[in-house]
Amino acid sequence: MLTSTDSALLRRLAEEQSAARVPSIVAGVVRDGRLVWSGARGQVDGAAPDEDTQYRLGSITKSLVAAVVMRLRDEGRLDLNDPLDKHVPGTSFGSSTVGQLLSHTGGLTSESPGSWWERSQGGDWQALDASLAVDAIKNRPGSRFHYSNVGYGVLGELVARHRGTDWFSAVRGEILEPLGMSSTEPHPQGRHAQGFAVHPFADVLLPEPSPDAGAMAPAGQLWSTVKDLARWTAFVGGDTGGVLRPETVAEMREVATVDDGDAWTSGYGLGLQLVRHHGRRLAGHTGSMPGFLACTITDPASGTGALTMANTTSGPAILTLAVDLITIADEAEPKLPAEWRPSEVDTGLLALTGLWHWGPTPFLLRLIPGGMFELTPVRGAGRASRFRPLGPDAWLGLDGYYAGETLRVHRTDGTPSHLDLATFIFTRTPYDPAAPIPGGVDETGWRP
Protein backbone atom coordinates (compact mmCIF):
# COMPACT_ATOMS: atom_id res chain seq x y z
CA MET A 1 0.00 0.00 0.00
CA LEU A 2 1.05 3.64 -0.29
CA THR A 3 3.47 4.96 2.31
CA SER A 4 0.78 7.32 3.62
CA THR A 5 -1.68 4.46 4.00
CA ASP A 6 0.93 2.32 5.72
CA SER A 7 1.59 5.15 8.18
CA ALA A 8 -2.12 5.63 8.94
CA LEU A 9 -2.65 1.91 9.53
CA LEU A 10 0.39 1.63 11.79
CA ARG A 11 -0.66 4.71 13.74
CA ARG A 12 -4.09 3.20 14.44
CA LEU A 13 -2.45 -0.01 15.63
CA ALA A 14 0.02 1.89 17.79
CA GLU A 15 -2.77 3.91 19.40
CA GLU A 16 -4.60 0.74 20.42
CA GLN A 17 -1.47 -0.98 21.78
CA SER A 18 -0.50 2.05 23.85
CA ALA A 19 -3.92 3.06 25.16
CA ALA A 20 -4.99 -0.49 26.03
CA ARG A 21 -1.56 -1.47 27.43
CA VAL A 22 -1.12 -4.56 25.26
CA PRO A 23 2.10 -6.61 25.63
CA SER A 24 2.16 -7.24 21.88
CA ILE A 25 -0.23 -6.95 18.99
CA VAL A 26 -0.08 -7.82 15.29
CA ALA A 27 -2.45 -6.91 12.48
CA GLY A 28 -2.90 -7.23 8.75
CA VAL A 29 -5.02 -5.96 5.89
CA VAL A 30 -6.16 -8.33 3.16
CA ARG A 31 -7.33 -7.19 -0.25
CA ASP A 32 -8.40 -9.35 -3.17
CA GLY A 33 -7.21 -12.51 -1.49
CA ARG A 34 -3.72 -11.46 -0.39
CA LEU A 35 -2.02 -9.79 2.55
CA VAL A 36 -1.21 -6.23 1.45
CA TRP A 37 -0.15 -4.75 4.81
CA SER A 38 0.95 -6.01 8.19
CA GLY A 39 2.12 -4.28 11.32
CA ALA A 40 3.17 -5.03 14.90
CA ARG A 41 3.70 -3.25 18.20
CA GLY A 42 5.11 -4.46 21.49
CA GLN A 43 7.47 -7.35 22.01
CA VAL A 44 7.58 -11.13 22.16
CA ASP A 45 10.70 -12.46 23.91
CA GLY A 46 12.42 -9.10 23.59
CA ALA A 47 11.74 -8.44 19.91
CA ALA A 48 8.85 -7.25 17.76
CA PRO A 49 6.51 -10.04 16.64
CA ASP A 50 6.26 -10.73 12.93
CA GLU A 51 3.96 -12.38 10.40
CA ASP A 52 5.05 -15.85 11.57
CA THR A 53 4.60 -15.37 15.33
CA GLN A 54 1.80 -17.54 16.68
CA TYR A 55 -1.07 -16.23 18.80
CA ARG A 56 -4.09 -18.09 20.09
CA LEU A 57 -7.20 -17.64 17.94
CA GLY A 58 -9.87 -18.52 20.49
CA SER A 59 -13.33 -18.71 18.97
CA ILE A 60 -12.12 -18.13 15.41
CA THR A 61 -11.57 -21.89 15.71
CA LYS A 62 -15.34 -22.27 15.48
CA SER A 63 -15.42 -20.92 11.93
CA LEU A 64 -12.98 -23.56 10.72
CA VAL A 65 -15.01 -26.32 12.36
CA ALA A 66 -18.13 -24.86 10.72
CA ALA A 67 -16.43 -25.06 7.33
CA VAL A 68 -15.96 -28.82 7.75
CA VAL A 69 -19.62 -29.18 8.75
CA MET A 70 -20.62 -27.30 5.58
CA ARG A 71 -18.44 -29.65 3.54
CA LEU A 72 -20.35 -32.56 5.06
CA ARG A 73 -23.59 -30.84 4.09
CA ASP A 74 -22.42 -30.23 0.53
CA GLU A 75 -21.39 -33.89 0.27
CA GLY A 76 -24.93 -34.92 1.24
CA ARG A 77 -23.84 -36.54 4.50
CA LEU A 78 -26.10 -34.31 6.57
CA ASP A 79 -28.78 -31.65 6.31
CA LEU A 80 -28.69 -28.49 8.40
CA ASN A 81 -32.24 -29.28 9.52
CA ASP A 82 -31.20 -32.70 10.82
CA PRO A 83 -31.60 -33.11 14.57
CA LEU A 84 -28.30 -33.72 16.31
CA ASP A 85 -29.60 -37.11 17.44
CA LYS A 86 -29.35 -38.36 13.85
CA HIS A 87 -25.57 -37.92 13.90
CA VAL A 88 -24.59 -37.95 17.59
CA PRO A 89 -27.34 -40.03 19.21
CA GLY A 90 -28.03 -40.28 22.91
CA THR A 91 -27.45 -36.71 24.13
CA SER A 92 -29.92 -34.81 26.27
CA PHE A 93 -30.23 -32.15 23.57
CA GLY A 94 -30.63 -34.29 20.46
CA SER A 95 -33.58 -32.28 19.14
CA SER A 96 -31.39 -29.24 18.42
CA THR A 97 -30.54 -29.16 14.73
CA VAL A 98 -27.13 -28.97 13.10
CA GLY A 99 -27.98 -25.54 11.69
CA GLN A 100 -29.06 -24.29 15.10
CA LEU A 101 -25.78 -25.41 16.64
CA LEU A 102 -23.85 -23.62 13.90
CA SER A 103 -25.77 -20.38 14.51
CA HIS A 104 -25.94 -20.54 18.33
CA THR A 105 -29.72 -20.91 18.31
CA GLY A 106 -29.81 -24.51 19.56
CA GLY A 107 -30.65 -23.47 23.12
CA LEU A 108 -27.59 -25.12 24.69
CA THR A 109 -25.85 -23.81 27.78
CA SER A 110 -23.04 -21.39 27.00
CA GLU A 111 -20.27 -23.12 28.97
CA SER A 112 -19.50 -26.73 29.88
CA PRO A 113 -20.42 -27.61 33.48
CA GLY A 114 -17.68 -27.83 36.07
CA SER A 115 -14.42 -25.91 36.11
CA TRP A 116 -14.13 -22.98 33.65
CA TRP A 117 -13.09 -24.84 30.52
CA GLU A 118 -10.83 -22.08 29.10
CA ARG A 119 -8.39 -22.38 32.04
CA SER A 120 -8.82 -26.11 32.79
CA GLN A 121 -7.49 -29.32 31.30
CA GLY A 122 -10.33 -30.75 29.25
CA GLY A 123 -11.78 -34.24 29.28
CA ASP A 124 -12.94 -36.43 26.42
CA TRP A 125 -16.32 -36.51 24.69
CA GLN A 126 -17.77 -39.06 27.11
CA ALA A 127 -16.98 -36.79 30.04
CA LEU A 128 -18.46 -33.74 28.32
CA ASP A 129 -21.59 -35.64 27.29
CA ALA A 130 -22.07 -36.95 30.82
CA SER A 131 -21.73 -33.44 32.27
CA LEU A 132 -24.55 -32.27 30.00
CA ALA A 133 -27.00 -35.02 30.93
CA VAL A 134 -29.11 -32.62 33.03
CA ASP A 135 -30.10 -29.00 32.40
CA ALA A 136 -28.11 -28.57 29.18
CA ILE A 137 -30.93 -26.76 27.36
CA LYS A 138 -31.36 -23.18 28.56
CA ASN A 139 -33.68 -21.88 25.82
CA ARG A 140 -36.17 -23.44 23.44
CA PRO A 141 -34.16 -24.51 20.37
CA GLY A 142 -34.61 -21.96 17.59
CA SER A 143 -36.15 -19.30 19.83
CA ARG A 144 -33.20 -16.97 20.30
CA PHE A 145 -29.48 -16.36 19.90
CA HIS A 146 -27.55 -17.72 22.88
CA TYR A 147 -23.81 -18.07 22.29
CA SER A 148 -22.77 -21.61 23.12
CA ASN A 149 -19.20 -22.80 23.33
CA VAL A 150 -20.64 -26.19 24.19
CA GLY A 151 -22.43 -26.28 20.84
CA TYR A 152 -19.11 -26.26 19.00
CA GLY A 153 -17.68 -28.95 21.24
CA VAL A 154 -20.65 -31.00 20.08
CA LEU A 155 -20.05 -30.10 16.41
CA GLY A 156 -16.44 -31.20 16.81
CA GLU A 157 -17.73 -34.62 17.88
CA LEU A 158 -20.12 -34.69 14.92
CA VAL A 159 -17.20 -34.02 12.56
CA ALA A 160 -15.09 -36.71 14.23
CA ARG A 161 -17.81 -39.33 13.85
CA HIS A 162 -18.40 -38.59 10.19
CA ARG A 163 -14.70 -38.48 9.31
CA GLY A 164 -13.55 -41.31 11.55
CA THR A 165 -10.81 -39.17 13.06
CA ASP A 166 -10.42 -36.38 15.60
CA TRP A 167 -11.86 -32.96 14.83
CA PHE A 168 -8.49 -31.28 14.27
CA SER A 169 -7.27 -33.91 11.81
CA ALA A 170 -10.39 -33.20 9.77
CA VAL A 171 -9.83 -29.42 9.94
CA ARG A 172 -6.17 -29.80 9.04
CA GLY A 173 -6.73 -32.16 6.11
CA GLU A 174 -9.81 -30.46 4.65
CA ILE A 175 -9.24 -26.77 5.44
CA LEU A 176 -5.74 -25.85 6.58
CA GLU A 177 -3.60 -27.89 4.21
CA PRO A 178 -5.54 -27.01 1.03
CA LEU A 179 -5.40 -23.31 1.97
CA GLY A 180 -1.69 -23.43 2.79
CA MET A 181 -2.27 -22.58 6.47
CA SER A 182 0.68 -24.62 7.73
CA SER A 183 1.24 -22.62 10.93
CA THR A 184 -2.23 -23.09 12.41
CA GLU A 185 -2.07 -25.70 15.18
CA PRO A 186 -3.85 -26.74 18.38
CA HIS A 187 -0.65 -25.95 20.32
CA PRO A 188 2.10 -23.43 19.52
CA GLN A 189 5.02 -24.56 17.43
CA GLY A 190 8.12 -22.36 17.20
CA ARG A 191 8.00 -18.67 18.06
CA HIS A 192 4.80 -17.73 19.84
CA ALA A 193 3.43 -15.14 22.20
CA GLN A 194 2.91 -15.95 25.86
CA GLY A 195 -0.59 -15.08 27.01
CA PHE A 196 -0.76 -12.45 29.76
CA ALA A 197 -3.24 -10.70 31.99
CA VAL A 198 -2.37 -7.02 32.52
CA HIS A 199 -3.02 -5.70 36.04
CA PRO A 200 -5.86 -3.12 35.91
CA PHE A 201 -4.07 -0.65 38.19
CA ALA A 202 -0.37 -1.26 37.49
CA ASP A 203 1.86 -1.97 34.52
CA VAL A 204 2.65 -5.56 35.45
CA LEU A 205 1.85 -8.89 33.82
CA LEU A 206 0.55 -12.28 34.96
CA PRO A 207 1.09 -15.30 32.68
CA GLU A 208 -2.12 -17.10 31.73
CA PRO A 209 -2.37 -20.90 31.30
CA SER A 210 -3.17 -22.49 27.95
CA PRO A 211 -4.19 -26.10 28.61
CA ASP A 212 -5.68 -28.49 26.08
CA ALA A 213 -9.45 -28.08 26.20
CA GLY A 214 -10.17 -31.68 25.23
CA ALA A 215 -13.69 -32.14 23.88
CA MET A 216 -14.23 -28.37 24.16
CA ALA A 217 -11.22 -27.63 21.94
CA PRO A 218 -13.33 -27.04 18.77
CA ALA A 219 -14.69 -23.95 20.54
CA GLY A 220 -11.32 -22.18 20.83
CA GLN A 221 -8.13 -24.25 20.82
CA LEU A 222 -6.23 -23.13 17.72
CA TRP A 223 -3.13 -20.92 17.38
CA SER A 224 -2.18 -19.12 14.17
CA THR A 225 -0.09 -16.39 12.54
CA VAL A 226 -0.71 -13.24 10.55
CA LYS A 227 0.11 -15.08 7.31
CA ASP A 228 -2.27 -17.96 8.00
CA LEU A 229 -5.09 -15.82 9.37
CA ALA A 230 -4.79 -13.57 6.30
CA ARG A 231 -5.50 -16.62 4.14
CA TRP A 232 -8.54 -17.46 6.23
CA THR A 233 -9.73 -13.84 6.01
CA ALA A 234 -9.56 -14.10 2.23
CA PHE A 235 -11.48 -17.40 2.40
CA VAL A 236 -14.35 -15.80 4.33
CA GLY A 237 -14.41 -13.05 1.70
CA GLY A 238 -14.99 -15.61 -1.04
CA ASP A 239 -11.51 -16.76 -2.13
CA THR A 240 -12.28 -20.34 -1.13
CA GLY A 241 -9.49 -22.17 -2.94
CA GLY A 242 -11.82 -25.04 -3.79
CA VAL A 243 -12.31 -25.95 -0.13
CA LEU A 244 -15.95 -24.86 -0.35
CA ARG A 245 -18.03 -23.47 -3.16
CA PRO A 246 -18.16 -19.65 -3.00
CA GLU A 247 -21.95 -19.85 -2.72
CA THR A 248 -21.60 -22.07 0.36
CA VAL A 249 -19.36 -19.49 2.04
CA ALA A 250 -21.86 -16.81 1.02
CA GLU A 251 -24.53 -18.92 2.74
CA MET A 252 -22.40 -19.00 5.89
CA ARG A 253 -22.29 -15.18 5.76
CA GLU A 254 -26.08 -14.84 5.59
CA VAL A 255 -27.89 -13.70 8.74
CA ALA A 256 -29.27 -16.67 10.67
CA THR A 257 -29.99 -14.72 13.85
CA VAL A 258 -29.55 -11.22 15.27
CA ASP A 259 -27.70 -10.63 18.53
CA ASP A 260 -28.91 -7.14 19.45
CA GLY A 261 -32.58 -7.04 18.50
CA ASP A 262 -33.99 -4.07 16.65
CA ALA A 263 -30.63 -2.33 16.36
CA TRP A 264 -29.23 -5.17 14.20
CA THR A 265 -25.59 -4.19 14.33
CA SER A 266 -24.37 -7.68 15.17
CA GLY A 267 -25.64 -11.12 14.31
CA TYR A 268 -24.54 -14.62 13.45
CA GLY A 269 -24.58 -16.78 10.36
CA LEU A 270 -23.35 -20.36 10.09
CA GLY A 271 -20.10 -20.28 12.02
CA LEU A 272 -19.49 -16.60 11.28
CA GLN A 273 -20.16 -13.43 13.23
CA LEU A 274 -21.80 -10.61 11.28
CA VAL A 275 -21.44 -6.88 11.81
CA ARG A 276 -23.17 -3.89 10.22
CA HIS A 277 -21.05 -0.74 10.30
CA HIS A 278 -21.75 2.49 8.40
CA GLY A 279 -23.45 0.71 5.53
CA ARG A 280 -21.00 -2.18 5.40
CA ARG A 281 -22.00 -5.81 5.96
CA LEU A 282 -18.95 -7.49 7.49
CA ALA A 283 -18.35 -11.16 8.29
CA GLY A 284 -15.73 -13.00 10.30
CA HIS A 285 -15.18 -13.90 13.94
CA THR A 286 -13.63 -12.64 17.13
CA GLY A 287 -11.78 -14.83 19.60
CA SER A 288 -10.78 -14.63 23.24
CA MET A 289 -9.02 -17.03 25.55
CA PRO A 290 -7.20 -16.25 28.79
CA GLY A 291 -4.19 -14.26 27.64
CA PHE A 292 -5.31 -13.71 24.04
CA LEU A 293 -7.69 -11.72 21.84
CA ALA A 294 -8.08 -12.10 18.07
CA CYS A 295 -10.31 -10.99 15.23
CA THR A 296 -10.72 -11.59 11.52
CA ILE A 297 -13.32 -9.58 9.61
CA THR A 298 -13.93 -8.91 5.94
CA ASP A 299 -16.14 -6.83 3.70
CA PRO A 300 -17.08 -9.09 0.77
CA ALA A 301 -18.43 -6.11 -1.15
CA SER A 302 -15.13 -4.23 -1.24
CA GLY A 303 -12.84 -7.25 -1.05
CA THR A 304 -10.98 -5.77 1.93
CA GLY A 305 -10.50 -7.56 5.23
CA ALA A 306 -8.44 -7.15 8.37
CA LEU A 307 -7.10 -9.29 11.18
CA THR A 308 -5.74 -8.54 14.63
CA MET A 309 -4.16 -10.71 17.37
CA ALA A 310 -2.94 -9.69 20.81
CA ASN A 311 -1.57 -11.50 23.86
CA THR A 312 -3.71 -10.00 26.58
CA THR A 313 -6.82 -11.23 28.37
CA SER A 314 -8.68 -7.93 28.02
CA GLY A 315 -8.22 -4.33 27.05
CA PRO A 316 -8.00 -3.61 23.33
CA ALA A 317 -11.16 -3.16 21.26
CA ILE A 318 -10.04 -5.86 18.87
CA LEU A 319 -13.11 -5.83 16.59
CA THR A 320 -13.24 -2.04 16.42
CA LEU A 321 -9.56 -1.98 15.54
CA ALA A 322 -10.03 -4.46 12.69
CA VAL A 323 -13.01 -2.53 11.30
CA ASP A 324 -11.01 0.72 11.52
CA LEU A 325 -8.15 -0.86 9.54
CA ILE A 326 -10.59 -1.82 6.77
CA THR A 327 -12.03 1.70 6.75
CA ILE A 328 -8.60 3.36 6.63
CA ALA A 329 -7.47 1.14 3.76
CA ASP A 330 -10.62 1.63 1.69
CA GLU A 331 -10.81 5.37 2.26
CA ALA A 332 -7.11 5.96 1.59
CA GLU A 333 -6.93 3.66 -1.41
CA PRO A 334 -10.42 2.99 -2.78
CA LYS A 335 -10.52 0.10 -5.19
CA LEU A 336 -11.13 0.75 -8.86
CA PRO A 337 -14.28 -0.89 -10.20
CA ALA A 338 -13.56 -4.21 -11.85
CA GLU A 339 -12.81 -3.78 -15.52
CA TRP A 340 -15.74 -4.92 -17.61
CA ARG A 341 -15.00 -7.59 -20.17
CA PRO A 342 -17.23 -9.75 -22.35
CA SER A 343 -17.74 -13.22 -20.94
CA GLU A 344 -18.39 -16.68 -22.29
CA VAL A 345 -22.11 -17.43 -22.24
CA ASP A 346 -24.42 -20.08 -23.57
CA THR A 347 -25.96 -18.13 -26.44
CA GLY A 348 -29.00 -20.37 -26.24
CA LEU A 349 -29.89 -18.58 -23.00
CA LEU A 350 -30.09 -15.18 -24.67
CA ALA A 351 -33.69 -15.94 -25.68
CA LEU A 352 -34.61 -15.93 -21.99
CA THR A 353 -33.18 -12.50 -21.24
CA GLY A 354 -35.04 -9.24 -21.29
CA LEU A 355 -38.47 -8.09 -20.21
CA TRP A 356 -40.92 -10.36 -18.35
CA HIS A 357 -44.07 -9.40 -16.47
CA TRP A 358 -45.53 -10.65 -13.22
CA GLY A 359 -49.08 -9.52 -13.76
CA PRO A 360 -48.70 -5.84 -14.72
CA THR A 361 -45.28 -5.47 -13.08
CA PRO A 362 -42.26 -5.51 -15.42
CA PHE A 363 -39.09 -7.40 -14.49
CA LEU A 364 -35.75 -7.81 -16.23
CA LEU A 365 -34.00 -11.16 -16.54
CA ARG A 366 -30.27 -10.76 -17.13
CA LEU A 367 -27.41 -13.19 -17.65
CA ILE A 368 -24.69 -12.47 -15.09
CA PRO A 369 -21.17 -13.87 -14.60
CA GLY A 370 -20.94 -17.45 -13.43
CA GLY A 371 -23.61 -18.73 -15.79
CA MET A 372 -26.37 -17.35 -13.59
CA PHE A 373 -29.52 -15.27 -14.07
CA GLU A 374 -30.60 -12.19 -12.13
CA LEU A 375 -34.27 -11.24 -11.93
CA THR A 376 -34.96 -7.63 -10.87
CA PRO A 377 -37.95 -5.29 -11.02
CA VAL A 378 -37.67 -2.59 -13.69
CA ARG A 379 -38.72 0.16 -11.29
CA GLY A 380 -38.15 0.63 -7.58
CA ALA A 381 -37.59 -1.96 -4.89
CA GLY A 382 -39.10 -5.38 -5.23
CA ARG A 383 -38.44 -9.07 -5.25
CA ALA A 384 -35.00 -9.52 -6.76
CA SER A 385 -33.01 -12.76 -6.77
CA ARG A 386 -30.15 -14.51 -8.48
CA PHE A 387 -30.51 -18.01 -9.88
CA ARG A 388 -28.03 -20.76 -10.69
CA PRO A 389 -28.75 -23.62 -13.11
CA LEU A 390 -30.27 -26.82 -11.76
CA GLY A 391 -30.83 -28.57 -15.06
CA PRO A 392 -32.54 -27.99 -18.40
CA ASP A 393 -34.86 -24.98 -18.00
CA ALA A 394 -34.65 -25.13 -14.18
CA TRP A 395 -32.89 -22.54 -11.99
CA LEU A 396 -32.42 -22.35 -8.21
CA GLY A 397 -32.93 -19.07 -6.33
CA LEU A 398 -29.85 -18.07 -4.33
CA ASP A 399 -30.98 -15.02 -2.38
CA GLY A 400 -33.75 -12.53 -1.77
CA TYR A 401 -37.42 -13.51 -1.72
CA TYR A 402 -36.91 -16.48 -4.02
CA ALA A 403 -33.98 -18.08 -2.18
CA GLY A 404 -34.39 -21.85 -2.46
CA GLU A 405 -37.27 -21.61 -4.93
CA THR A 406 -37.11 -23.05 -8.45
CA LEU A 407 -37.61 -20.98 -11.56
CA ARG A 408 -38.87 -23.15 -14.43
CA VAL A 409 -38.94 -22.14 -18.08
CA HIS A 410 -41.93 -23.31 -20.13
CA ARG A 411 -41.77 -23.40 -23.91
CA THR A 412 -44.13 -23.58 -26.86
CA ASP A 413 -42.57 -25.14 -29.94
CA GLY A 414 -39.17 -24.54 -28.38
CA THR A 415 -39.77 -20.83 -27.75
CA PRO A 416 -39.92 -19.62 -24.12
CA SER A 417 -43.55 -18.83 -23.37
CA HIS A 418 -43.63 -18.17 -19.64
CA LEU A 419 -41.71 -18.59 -16.39
CA ASP A 420 -43.11 -20.35 -13.33
CA LEU A 421 -41.50 -19.19 -10.09
CA ALA A 422 -43.02 -20.45 -6.83
CA THR A 423 -46.49 -20.42 -8.54
CA PHE A 424 -45.97 -16.88 -9.90
CA ILE A 425 -46.30 -16.77 -13.69
CA PHE A 426 -44.07 -14.36 -15.61
CA THR A 427 -45.02 -13.59 -19.21
CA ARG A 428 -43.54 -11.50 -22.01
CA THR A 429 -46.59 -9.22 -22.04
CA PRO A 430 -48.70 -8.25 -19.02
CA TYR A 431 -51.27 -10.95 -18.22
CA ASP A 432 -50.67 -12.83 -21.46
CA PRO A 433 -53.96 -14.71 -22.09
CA ALA A 434 -52.02 -17.52 -23.77
CA ALA A 435 -50.20 -18.31 -20.51
CA PRO A 436 -51.66 -20.25 -17.55
CA ILE A 437 -52.34 -17.12 -15.49
CA PRO A 438 -53.85 -18.18 -12.12
CA GLY A 439 -57.53 -17.21 -12.11
CA GLY A 440 -57.49 -16.65 -15.86
CA VAL A 441 -57.52 -13.39 -17.81
CA ASP A 442 -60.71 -11.43 -18.43
CA GLU A 443 -61.64 -12.34 -22.00
CA THR A 444 -62.58 -8.75 -22.87
CA GLY A 445 -58.97 -7.74 -22.26
CA TRP A 446 -57.59 -4.34 -21.34
CA ARG A 447 -60.02 -1.43 -21.49
CA PRO A 448 -59.99 2.37 -21.08
From TrEMBL:
Gene3D superfamilies: DD-peptidase/beta-lactamase superfamily
Naturally occurring in which organism (per UniProt): Amycolatopsis acidicola
Name of this chain's protein: Beta-lactamase family protein
Positions of the DUF7586 domain: 346-428
Cited InterPro entries: AmpC-like, Beta-lactam-related, Beta-lactam/transpept-like, DUF7586
Beta-lactamase-related domain mapped to chain residues: 11-316
Domain of life the protein comes from: Bacteria
Record field: transmembrane: none
